[in-house]
Amino acid sequence: MPPDAPVIEARHLTRHYGSQAVVQDVSFTLQAGETLVLLGPSGCGKTTLLRMLNRLIEPDAGTVVINGQDVRQQRPEQLRRGIGYVIQQVGLLPHYTVAENVAVVPQLLGHPPAQVAARTEELLRRLHLPPERYARQYPHQLSGGQQQRVGLARALAADPPIILLDEPFGALDPITRVSIRREFRELPELRRKTVVLVTHDVTEAFELADRILLLNAGQTQQLGTPHELLFRPANDFVRQFFEDERLGLQLRTLRLADVLTAGFSASQSDDSSIYQSATNILTPNATIQAALELLSQASTTAAQPLPEPTVWVSAPANRPDLAPVPLTYATLMAAFGRAVQQLSAA
Ligand SMILES: Nc1ncnc2c1ncn2[C@@H]1O[C@H](COP(=O)(O)OP(=O)(O)OP(=O)(O)O)[C@@H](O)[C@H]1O
Question: Considering the domain 8-253, what is its CATH architecture?
Answer without folding.
Answer: 3-Layer(aba) Sandwich (3.40)
